[in-house]
Structure of 3-alpha-(Or 20-beta)-hydroxysteroid dehydrogenase:
Amino acid sequence: MARLKDKVAIITGAAAGMGEQHARLFVKEGAKVVLTDVQAGKGQALAEELGHNALFIQHDVTDESGWQQVVAKTEAHFGPIDVLVNNAGISPVLSIERASLADYMKVVKINQVSVFLGMKAVIPSMKKTKAGSIINISSMNGLVGGAIGYTDTKFAVRGMTKAAAKELGHYGIRVNSVHPGVINTPMVQKSAALDQIKTMVANVPLKRMADPKEVSRLVLFLASDDASYSTGAEFIIDGGVTA
């Protein structure tokens, strides 16, 4: 039986990388999925490929009014929202000595503020069914240090997840964070720090990067009723790095 049969899900940053894999698996498992991204061409093409259970909405996750529109369009097209995957994010390699405030705030808005806005926007819809699963994609750098800006925001996602889980539990809404390690996505392959990443992979106990599909299977678990008593928790998928 499909693990997400008839569940309505929003996945941000769904046009490529991990978000694309989440969307593919969710549709395969019976969900009705709204894909959002700033990349309209890729997002629309993916939604068309996935069929009638997928809808693409061009969306800047830092725009509060945009979030309201996404929720309204999702409800109009598919019904009340069951799942939110806050997947959109960026991973620049900043230096605390050289980065400008504008550089820093761009990361904060996309990686941190968007998660707050997304959670806030879907709560009224999830309250209608007295249930819901919010999955916030953090990073292993939400547990251990990394680049300035990226690390800070991923720690913040971890904290927001716990605070939201405590506040929203009585509505039946679960909130969990996922902490991937080095995932073999287009973002990683294009990273200015690719050589450093390859060196890092040599020190991963499992000796490889993860495939995005491996992360998607964990996200699927959290979205499904199989995780019905998991909330406010950190789910680590890093090949053993933080062990």
Observations:
- The chain has one domain: 8-236.
- The longest strand covers residues 173-180.
- The chain has eight helices and seven strands.
